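Worked Example 4.2. Consider the chain below.
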Amino acid sequence: MRRRLRWLVLPLGALALGSNPLPTYDLSGVWDYTISEIGEVGPCPTTGDFGGEAHILQTAETFSLDFVSGQPCLPEGVCHLVGTVSGSHYQASNAVDVPGGGVAATTLDFVAASATAAAGSAVSTFTLAPDVCTWTYELTLTYAPEPEAAGLVALLALAAISARSTRRATRGSGGSWSPGSARR
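Applying the procedure from the previous section yields the following structure tokens:
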């Protein structure tokens, strides 16, 4: 008796059961950030809410986030985090050696609500024996298009409006459109 071999065709993603979903958004670009609801545990310097500019570079399921203004970044490297993306969920961390044998570390966890807005929480710890200081805080990110890009978009929008106005001015005039005919 002969048996028939039957093929089951599955999408490639179905073979990776249990894998993380592909990123929902590409958050690469310049962002405004706000840090608020700061809590301190240990001998921490007290700080109020603050904000500045952050840069995100996303490549598929990995990303880096750099806080480029709004806070001191000492020791060097403490404002650079690297992490992973799963769907719209972003997780990043860093650990930087502190002069004198300590460590400064941050863990960041946020969700992108859209390609232009994200929010989450973070924990930063500064350890220099025997002291440990821990900050908890909320992070809000809002996309801030680069000025050159915003200017180009405005220029293209103005050109489209001008072209539309020119077409409307020539409708019903009985003649055909030619350069300069809309200026009459």
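The first strand starts at residue 29 and ends at 41. Residues 3-17, 164-184 have pLDDT under 50 and may be disordered. Compare this with Example 4.1 before moving on.
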